[in-house]
Each structure stands twice: as C-alpha cells, then as structure tokens.
Amino acid sequence: MAGLEENGPEPTTSCADPRGDPFLHTRFAIPARPATFLRRERLVRHLDQALRTPLTVVSGAAGAGKTLLAADWAAREDRSVAWLTNDAAAQGCGMFWAYFLQALSASGVPPPAEVGSPADASRVDQTLLTRLAAGLSDRDRPVIVVLDEYDRVTAPEIAEQLEFVLHHAGRGMRLILVTRTEPLLPLHRYRAVGDMTEIRAAELAFTPEEATALLELHGLRVPVSAARSLVERTRGWAAGLRLCALAAQESPDPETYLKEFEVDRTTVADFLLAEVLKRQTPEAQDLLLRVSVLDRFGPELANALTGRTDAESVLAGLHRENAFVEYLGHDRYRLHPLFGEILHAHLRMRSPGLEPDLHRRAATWLRDSGSLAETLGHGAAAGDWEFTAGALVDDLAIGQLFTGLRSDHLAELFSGMGPEATSPATDLVRAARELARSNLDHGLAHLRHAERSLAEEDRTPAGESPPGLAAARLSHALLEALAGRLTGSPARAETAAETAAELQQEVPAQLLDAHPELAALLSTHLGSTRLWAGSYEDARAALSTAVACSGGASTALPREESLGHLALIDYLNGWPGKAERKALAAVTETERFSLREESGSGIELLVLAAVAVDRNELDRAQAFLDAAADSHHAMRDPVMRAGRAIATARLLLARGETHAALEAAEPAVSADVASPWSEAHKALAASAVHLAEGRPETAAELLQGVPGDQPACVVGAARAQLAAGRPAEALDLLDRVRPEGGTGAERRTGPAVTVRASLVRAEAADRAGDSATARRLVAHALHEARRERLRRPFLEAGPWIRPLLGTVPLRGLAEGWLTPGPPPCAAPRAHPGDQPPPPVVEELSGREHDVLERLAQMMSTEEIAADLYVSVNTVKTHLKSVYRKLSVNRRHDAVHRARELRLL
User: Fold this and answer.
1) How far apart are CA 612 and CA 604, in angstroms?
2) Which segments carry the region annotation Disordered (predicted)?
C-alpha cells in the first residue's frame, strides 16, 4: 500500500479537523523529557517487547510516569513512531479518527487518499476503518502508533472501532496505549495468545534506588532509607516524588520534609497552590485563576479576561518556568489539567460570582475573533442567552440545527435557556429546536413570537436597526419555509422562499459562503412542499438545486433528503428503477460523511420499500420499513407520512392483509392543503382492497373522482371497471395513459403504470376471445417489466394470466425472474412458488459477521454480548443492521439467507 510507506508520496490529507479547526500539531509531537527525567532501563527493556506484540498497554495513575517513559522509548527508536496525545475523544468518533489519521501522516506514514477522513466530529463510517485496516495489513514493516492519554477515550464505539482496526491490521501495526484506566478492549484475548505487552502501575512505581537517583537529579542527596520511606508514603508515584522533590528543594531540612510529605489530592492541591501559584507575581496569579475557565487560550484572550495587556510575557514566563502551563504551538496555551482543575475550584472559593463574568468576557472576545463554537460555549456557561442566541443567528448558523453535524450539540447547548430570555434571536432558536424535532405546536408559537419581535425592530428609525437584523430575518425565512413544509402549506413555503431570495441580497456574501447549508435547506423545504402540492416539475427544479449544492458535509443532509424526494417523484410517476437509484444515492450521501441516519426524514427508505413491493420482494420491503421506523427520523413532514402510508398499504395488500392495508392507507396526515397524489393513492389502496374482496362496483366508485393526472389511479379505475363487467369504459380510461413519448403529463408515465395498463388491456382482450391480442399485450408487458423486475402487476392480474404465461412464446420471457427457470442438473428442484432472493443492499461489517456467526450457533443475545465483550444494546444494534442488510426480520431467516449467499 504505497500511501503507507515511509518514503511514499505526500499525503492528500486535510489541514483541518472535522470542526474546521486547524490540527494541533503539538498533539503529534513526542513530548520532550525534562532535565530531571530519570531513564529507567528496566522499563525501557520491557517496552522493547512492544515491537513483538500487536498491543501494548502502559497503565497507571495520573503522574505515574507513563507518558515520559513512552516518549523516551519512542525518541530512541530507529523508525517512525506515530504519536497522538488524545484530547478530542470527547468530541466523538469522527474527531478521534481524524486525528489518528493525521498522526500517521505526521510520522511520515500517511494513509492513502482513498481512506478519506471523517467530516462529522461525532461519527466515522465503517468503510474508512476497513480501508485503513486493509492498508496497514499490507505493510512489510509495522507502523508503531502511540496513543497517549487514552483514558480520555471513554466512548465504547471508539474502542470497538480501534479493536477492529488493530485486529484486521494484523502484523502491520503495533499499538501502544498510554492510559490511566483499563482500555475498553478484549484484553483477555490478547493475553491468552501472548499478543500483549503490559506495563502496569506496580511496575511503573519507583524503587527506593530509583527514587534516590531522581532526588539527586533535583539536587537532593538523601540516604536510601529516607528515599525508601518516601517511596512507601507515595507508593512510588512519579509525580508525587517530583512534586515532593521540588518542595524539598526549598526546605531547610529536605530529609524531614520528605518524611512528612502526604500524597493525597488535598495535599497535592495545597502544594500546587502554595508552591506554584503563590510563588508567582500577583499579575500572574490573577491570570492563572482567570484562564482556568478556558480549555485553550492565547495571550489576547487572556488579556480580555484580565483587562491588562501583559499576558504574552506572563504566559511565556510561566511556560519557561514549567509552572504547569503547556504551550500548544500557534501562540496557544493550556493549563495542566490537574492544575487547571485546582485553580478553577480556587477561583470559585476566592472570587464567588466572578466565573460567569469571565465566561461572558471570553464569549465577547471570541465572537469578535470569529470562533463561533467557543463563543456559544462560553456564552451558555455565562447564562447570557440573548447574547448566545444572537451570536448564532447573526452568524447565519441557525441551519446547523438541521444538518446533522452539530445539531445535537447545539440543541443540548441551548437546552438550558429559560423563558426569561426574550429576544428575536432566542425565539428563533427555540423555534428551530422545536421544529427540528417536528414539534409543531411549540415551534410555530415561538416562530410567531419571533415574527412579532422582528416586526417591531423593523419599525425602528433608519440607521438604528440592529446590525444583525437581515441575518435574523433570513433565519426566520428559513424556519418559515420549514414550517410550510411541516404543515403542508405550499403558499407559506413559497412566500418564505421569495422573502429569503430578497434578504440574501442584504446579508454579507461571506456569511452566505460560510453557510451553504442555508440555501440547501431552503431548496429542500420548498421542493418538499411543492411535491406535497403535486407540482412535480417545480418540485424537481427546487430539489435538483439542493442536490447540486456544494459544501461537503454541511449540505449532505439536505442533499440526501432532496434525492429521497426526487426518488419519490420517480416512483409516483412509475419509474421504480430510477427511484431506486436515487434512493440508494441518498443513503450513501450521508454515509460517506458518517452522519447519523436519523438526522433527516428517511424518505428514501420508504421509496426503497415501495419499489421492493412492486418487485414482490416483501421481506426486503418490510426490512426497509422497519429501518425507517427504527431510525427515529426527526423530519416527520406530510410527504414522509404519506410515503409511509403508501408503502405500508401496498405491502399489506401484497400479503393479503386487506383490512390492515385499508387502515394503513388512512394515516393521520395533518396538512393545510390536501395533496392530490396522497389522496389519489389513498383511494387507490382502498379500491384495491374492495376489488380483492369481490366488490368491483365499490372499487370503481372510489376512483371516479380522482383527477386524470394520476395515471396509476386511472389504471386502477380501469381495472375496477373491467372487473365490474364494463370493458368499454375500462378501455376508454386506459386511452388516457400513454408511455413516455407523449405530451404533457403523459410524458412522465413509467413502466410501473404502463405494464399494469397493458395487462388490463390484455385481460379485456382475453375476455373478448382475442387471444392473439392478449398474448401480444402480455408479451409487451413482460418486456417492460423484466428490465425493472416488476413482479407484482402479474401477481395482481388474477388467474386468467397463468395459462398465457405457460405458452411457448411467453414462457421464455417470464422464466428466471417472474417464474422459475429450468433448474441446473445438479441443483435440487425448486418449488413453483419460489422467487429469487433479493440482493444484499450492503456488505456486512466485520463485527456484523461476528454476530451472524454466533446467531448460527444458536447463541442468545446475552451470550453473544458476553462472547464479544460488548453490551447487549450493541448486539441488538448489530442485529438490526444485519436484518436490514439481509432483508429479513427474524434470526432464523437471517441465518438461512446468509447461507444462501455463502456468508456462512
């Protein structure tokens, strides 16, 4: 794998992490050892075994000397070592793997471009991990990867993903975990086969002889007995020894001080406050206490919190003095975590009430510097919700509540905003949060409040309007378009879109360029509403605009939704193949950016279900419907509800469950305007039920009022008329339906409609005794249906068609896809009713294969979880995914299907 060779080409890696921030290169640097560092050869020799085992764990308490040991060992190696100091694990899987890949690049062994990089800080796609593991497994020399501070990785899914890469990388990677806690990995497996090197707390502890040598490096010469007493008191804790040595240097009686030193958190805190903080100048003490509310900071931000201008020199001095201030590069600093925590607690005790003011100052400074995420975090910590909501709206970033990238984070951030916060921005944020969850009543109420507030600000004298008013009004227009979509109100959405187009001329171009999701969301909402109104071509224009939007991950979700809606248009027009291709493209649109499946409406899954019904792949259709239901999609608009009703009713009809189909076709779709296609397909389903139960007159009456621009319903009405004994009326109706090549609405009619129309004509000819015409029409239908694998029209046609399909000219057209073909000589004879199994939609992941193998062994969910060392909920999640991919909904069927496909 050329991209993973030490001297390979320059990597095509991103210069920014999934949040858009530059990678912090200090996180890839092997930490420098201080002048007082003591190299302990016994540990170095033990760590050398890391080159012979896939996994090495260096585990111990904070300050046990883990990092310095690994850094000293890594710096002496004659090969590249990829070093990553974990800091972003709390941000999610995507951030962890983005930094992991960047660490490989920084060490000179970059992954190839096809591996990619996560765009969502909270997710990573399994495909990326598979490609990475495959690339590593092809290496002649293993990559050495050190993950420092791995205890910060607390998400089980990250540990599971890391174990997957480690397992499948084989001899291509040597992984060293430096951690305070037990890693969430199946360590017993590696121990059992001798594939793990372990250095634990007991081994990291200093011996009396080593403690004596360490104290000598600090200029302290004490007898071994004094060192032994110190080791007993500190249990050999490296940081305690060093802290004690620093303090003893200032003591007139070092030996006595060492005997009295107590190692507990309070003592260490007292020591740090007394011997580090209080030794600084008053200005430095004030700065340290105030910046303790920050994760990272530069001199300018520190100055904003202190009100002075000396932060640059103070911070540089503190760093030089090793006063627990770490330099991150790019003029950025952070406090040592333990020191920062102690300072933060001391700040609250020493200056009650100051912390909110510091957060407010930080938020104000960061808003001017352009760091929106940090601005919002500090604004929320200050409890200044008018400011925080105003920053989000003024930046035109309210659309991020709907993109799936930062939606959950922003929703959680504003969850603490109480009713006392009143401004147009707070009302807009409240409306956005509620509408994002399809909570119409609350969302629309907040939207009305925002509209009134904005109207009042519009009436302010010229030159006195707030500077962010245009952005607020544009944000309001976006939410109005969404409200029009959710309420099924085309006029509302059209008005909002027109208003948005005008307001975009008033908003700074750089804001619009920075937030392409806004235009994509607007087009998606407008297209969905037009589709609901039955304006297919206008809907297609708006949805195609959204699909064409740039912006990468930020517009992936509206692109997915728009593709799903375009797929529904194709399905309604009778083009199942086109619909399926667009729906599958919609699924992959967000998958390649590792976005959550439940972020959008999931309309593409419903389309896939409906297409599967037309192909008589009923288990597959059920799997898609279950996937759509289980994903808890947030955007539950009328189009989605009607789409689910159509797919569910058709599936139940195919299964012969007529009463349930009738109920499913009558969903509680609340909308301001009735949808012509939704009403038509509701009538079509009801008509099919009555026809199946032998009531052709009732079936025909139900479709009499359906407009002629719904070809599927026209064909359904013709079928009902024929069943009622009125072939002339049936043929008159069918004359309205023409295949592609006609004019106007007729041009959009696809084979799912025309095949059914041909079969109704064929049945009429067969009843009239014109068998030649009937065979010709059935042959034409078979030709059209075969390309699309349309089986349901022939199964719905009734018993009259069976003799025709058995005739020589037609049997060849039907064999192999509609009826069983001749079996191979060595194959067992197939049953007449068997249908070819549906293809697997996606390949199973490695973990899904593991679960499937244990299913075949008749293991319970709890037994699988115990055997794989994962939670029961994790196993259930894998099972759902396996069922969906294999188009089944039961354990036995999954195993049977997997054996058919030779997956077991």
Assistant:
1) 12
2) 1-20
* Amino acid sitting at position 358: L
Res. 130 pLDDT band, cuts 50 70 90: very high
User: Which residues are CB-contacts of 675 (< 8 A; sequence separation ≥ 6)?
Assistant: 488, 532, 533, 534, 638, 639, 642, 669
**Contact present, 470 and 506 (Cβ < 8 Å):** yes
- Written as one letter, the residue type at 166 is L
Residue 627's contacts (CB-CB under 8 Å, 6 or more residues apart) are 602, 605, 880, 884
For residue 363, how many other CB atoms are within 10 A of its CB? 23
pLDDT tens digits for range 786-805: 989 999 999 999 889 988 99
Upper half-sphere CA count for residue 894 (Cβ side, 13 Å): 23
| Nearest by Cα to 478 from 508, 445, 521, 540 | 521
Looking at 114-123, 202-211, 638-647, 748-757, which range is the least confident one? 114-123
What span, in angstroms and rounded, lies between the C-alpha atoms of 185 and 195? 13
Q: What is the pLDDT of residues 172-185, one digit of tens each?
A: 999 999 987 788 88
First to last CA, the chain: 29
Q: Regarding beta strands 332-335 and 325-329, do their DSSP bridges make them parallel or antiparallel, or are they unpaired?
A: antiparallel
**β partners of residue 85:** 148
The span from the CA of 615 to the CA of 667, in Å, is 24
Helices (H) and strands (E) in the chain, counts: 46, 7
Residue 9: φ, ψ to 5°: -65, 165
Chain-centroid distance of CA 188 in Å reads 31
Q: Is 415 exposed, middle or buried (0-12, 13-18, 19+ CB in 10 A)?
A: exposed
List all residues 6 or more positions away from 274 whose beta carbon is below 8 Å from its beta carbon.
none
Give the predicted TM-score (pTM) of the model. 0.72
Map residue 76 onto helix, strand or coil.
Answer: coil
| CB burial string 663-700: b at 16+ within 10 A, e below | ebbebebebebebbbbbbbbbbbbbbbbbeeebbebbb
DSSP characters over 737-803? ---TTSSGGGGG--HHHHHHHHHHHHHHHHHTT-HHHHHHHHHHHHHHHHHHT--HHHHHH-TTHHH
Do 166 and 55 touch, CB atoms closer than 8 A? yes
Tell me, what amino acid is at 798?
G
Tell me whether strands 55-59 and 173-179 are parallel, antiparallel or unpaired: parallel
- Residue 817's identity, in one-letter code, is W
Only one residue has tokens 């195919």, namely 654
Q: Which of the residue ranges 616-630, 802-816, 864-878 would you say has the lowest mean pLDDT? A: 864-878
Contact between residue 312 and residue 332 where contact means Cβ atoms under 8 Å apart:
no
Q: How far is CA 451 from CA 201, 418, 466, 474, in A?
A: 62, 19, 15, 11
Answer yes or no: are the C-beta atoms of 483 and 671 closer than 8 Å. Answer: no
Distance CA(488)–CA(670), nearest Å, equals 8
Q: What is the full DSSP assignment across 152-213? A: G---HHHHHHHHHHHHHHGGGEEEEEEESS--SS-HHHHHHTT-EEEE-HHHHSPPHHHHHH
Gap between the Cα atoms of 735 and 742, Å rounded: 12
Which tokens sit at 288?
Answer: 């340290």
